[in-house]
Design a protein that fits this description.
The complex is a heterodimer of chains A (160) and B (261). By secondary structure, chain A is α+β, with helices and mostly antiparallel strands. Helix content of chain A is 29%, strand content 14%. Chain A has two domains: 2-76, Ubiquitin-like (UB roll) (Roll); 86-149, [2Fe-2S]-binding domain (DNA polymerase, domain 1), CATH 1.10.150. In chain A, helix 2 (86-93) packs across helix 5 (140-149). The termini of chain B are far apart.
């Protein structure tokens, strides 16, 4: 079937099967490979994108269900000239990634949190990341980066 | 994944026709899509309920019940069911933010996962589950693990929750899956207390009659002193044995009573 949607502000369309996952349409048809497939079982959150402004796991939604929707992926987060968004910059400044595989999902989840809650507490940041798994950082610097992106200093932590 | 079709009807009538024609209802898909990937179910046609406006929304009826349409996502319930704070709190803590943006109350109740949150809220509240063909009391709806009173192709259209005087939902999560290892919904109504437990039993969500009786006489955590859950029907798996889950039932019930508001 034919699907049409806006991805990062650009109108796109393509032929998909019923079984085509949104993440496969983004990666294989649109060649937007920044959105990652980690677990493919809706646990890890590496495939997190926004559909009509709401974060979803694109491995657990069919492309057909996004027909007519506005989709935002990691490729649309930085400015067209390559300037990083404040969240991306904070991840770089605070070493919020090591291998980087989970980072697109982490950034999209963080953007969703800060849109609804511009000044989250550390506990709220951690709670919001329930569905995003990172196997490198231990989360500490990811939380620090998101707090910094919200313009807040990270309080001293027990772990430090 | 194997090949299948998807239909996206925009009215309940069109969805009923497509399902009667052999389709499988697809609500938020947060359980069904992983199930399809594992080929634990292999329908030839999915009928998405996501585009049906008449199946979405939160309202209050003439009896003061909070009424949630079947395809309403958890996030909306968390945001809009504030008149029943314990119910809004259940919805706001299911899964993770992405799951809450897709998963629906109708999908959760139709699936009746033995560790799901909404079955505890529905049974603990004495809710009414409305379908495209009838209304079913929560006490008659849950029939065991992944089993409900729904007939083949029956669609959950709305769930009506009476609002108790006070209530709370306390869950002890299994940290990998984020599902409850054991969770307890306690609701105190003028005519008695209901206690519903999920995650614990091999027969799915259930009411704890002894605790209900004790709490109806005296709604305090102390009223539960000495009450023990029979471990016989508890789930045993690598996350916890029967005795552990039975113990958690009592602990989480006490916490729910303490935190009820």
């Amino acid at each position: 079937m034919k699907v049409t949607m806006k991805v990062n502000g650009r109108a796109v369309s393509g032929e998909v099967e019923g079984r085509t996952l949104l993440v496969d349409f983004l990666r294989n048809d649109l060649r937007l490979t920044g959105t990652h497939v980690g677990c493919d079982t809706s646990q890890c959150g590496a495939c997190t994108v926004h559909v009509d402004g709401k974060q979803v796991k694109s491995c657990t939604m069919f492309a057909a269900e996004a027909d007519g929707a506005e989709v935002a992926t990691i490729e649309g987060v930085a400015a067209p000239d390559g300037t990083l968004s404040s969240i991306q910059q904070a991840f770089q400044d605070h070493h919020g990634l090591q291998c980087g595989f989970c980072t697109p999902g982490m950034v999209m989840a963080a953007a969703s949190l800060l849109k609804d809650n511009p000044k989250p507490t550390e506990a709220e940041v951690r709670h919001h990341l329930d569905g995003n798994i990172c196997r490198c950082t231990g989360y500490h610097n990811i939380v620090k980066a998101i707090m910094a992106a919200s313009g807040q200093e990270m309080p001293a932590m027990a772990a430090e | 994944m194997y090949a299948f079709e998807i239909e996206r009807p925009t009215t309940l009538d069109a969805a009923k026709a497509a399902i009667a024609d052999g389709g499988q209802a697809l609500s938020g898909g947060q359980t069904l899509i992983p199930t399809l990937k594992a080929r634990l179910a292999m329908p030839e046609k999915l009928v998405s309920l996501h585009s049906i406006a008449e199946l979405k929304g939160v309202s209050t009826d003439g009896e003061g019940r909070i009424c949630i349409k079947g395809a309403t996502v958890h996030r909306t319930v968390g945001d809009e069911a504030g008149a029943y704070p314990a119910l809004a709190s259940v919805a706001a803590r299911i899964g993770d933010p992405a799951v809450r943006n897709r998963g629906t109350i109708g999908g959760s109740l139709a699936n009746n996962d033995p560790s799901a949150c909404y079955p505890a809220a529905a049974l603990g509240s004495g809710a009414t589950i409305c379908t495209d063909r009838r209304e079913i009391a929560a006490d008659d709806y849950f029939k065991g693990m992944f089993t409900t009173a729904l007939a083949e192709g029956e669609i959950v259209t709305e769930v009506k929750f009476p609002v108790p005087e006070v209530a709370a939902y306390e869950k002890f999560i299994q940290p990998a899956s984020r599902f409850p290892l054991v969770a307890v919904f306690v609701a105190k109504f003028a005519d008695g207390v209901r206690v519903a437990i999920t995650g614990a039993s091999e027969t799915g969500v259930f009411r704890w009659a002894e605790a209900e009786k004790a709490l109806s006489d005296n709604f305090t955590p102390e009223a539960l002193e000495g009450l023990k859950m029979d471990p016989d029907h508890m789930i045993a798996d690598l996350h916890g044995d029967k005795a552990y889950r039975a113990h958690l039932c009592a602990v989480m019930t006490k916490r729910a009573v303490k935190n009820a508001k």
